[in-house]
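Run Guanine deaminase through structure prediction, thanks.
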Amino acid sequence: MTLYRGTFLDTPVAGSLRTLDGVVQVEDGVVVARGPAADFPAADVDLRGGVVLPGLVDTHVHFPQVRAIGGLGMPLLDWLDECALPEECKLAAPDYAAAVAAEFVDGLARAGTTTALVFGSHFATAVDALFTEAARVGLRVTSGLVVSDLLLPDELLTSASRALDEGRALAETWHGVGRARYAVTPRFSLSCSPALLESCASLLAEVDGALFTSHVNENLAEVAAVAELHGGYVDSYDRFGLLGPGSVLAHDVHPTDAELAVLGSRGTAVAHCPTSNAALGSGLFPLRRHRAAGVRVALGSDVGAGTGFCLLKEGLQAYFGQRLLGGAGEPLTPADLLHLATAAGADALGLPEVGHLSVGMRFDAVWVRPEPGCTLDVALRTAADPDAALAKVFALAGPPDLAGVWVDGDRIRG
Ligand code: GUN
Ligand code: ZN
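Sure, done. The structure for Guanine deaminase is below.
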């Protein structure tokens, strides 16, 4: 049993910020009580000076692209050819893949990300290295073999039967083991034949509780190319039965109303990736249209097109994007940003036990504790109220300001 003393901010209900200046009691990784300090004996861990947030949830991030971060100035398809895919080819070498896996998992943990839906590699050995490293560090990771049989460099291509065999073997090894789960992951329908997507549907049906993830409607040139190859983008997945409540599609910057209606009716979630959309010039995310269609939305860093692992930066960029949409944008409050970065992510990934710090939830948490005297420290000490403090966290905080990270009550950093 551990008693944590601090100022805890979370959003169990979308849109409203809950604050506890008090104690959270954790047993076997689960929050069993919370309340004013006077109701508890002396705390074991003092997290005062700063704020404690639920662990951040990244619903879309690419493991093999750590070293591709920062390739600016290109739209999606050029960036893939020039930055991402050459780097991804290097993960064929097991030593290289293991080094990148260590950098990747460390990058997530430093950024306060405790749960992630991770786009894996095209190489099964590299995906195995990722799961191995995530288990060693203790992150809650869902990932899978990325598959394609068209368009990409030859060494990244597979066949429908090999995709099924390799995916099945990885799922047998990792799905449901510790904090790991498997996600069936065609790269995007532009790089997949109908036969390959069919094999993805077979694997999804075989692996009970597996997620499905891919990309959709990111860039106008890409959307036009998918229309040539398959017809509609959302339909390219839906016609194989790949869209349901356990599916997460990244981006969706350019959906039609009919596509949003399909996503809403299937219960499929969308990973909004704000820094990536800005860096690649993909466009501004139509959050209001998603909400109007009942589509669940959470945040993704989309590293390496995204400009870093920290979901706090994604929250700020999401806010900027909606501001730039003017009247068509959703005005986002600090509580909305925290909800998108935590509870909405947990919901998108089908993990009801994480995302906030209520009794009964797993203790996944991040202690934002800036260096005394720095701008964020001054801002937090002078904030008028918890909403203002949270706004300052999103405006100013980054990985160096995170002094502790917990998953299931295990301190994985700090
Ligand atoms: N679409 C297909 N592959 C990718 C990728 O690696 N990054 C992004 N942002 N979009 C993609
Ligand atoms: Zn992506």
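The chain has a mean pLDDT of 98.
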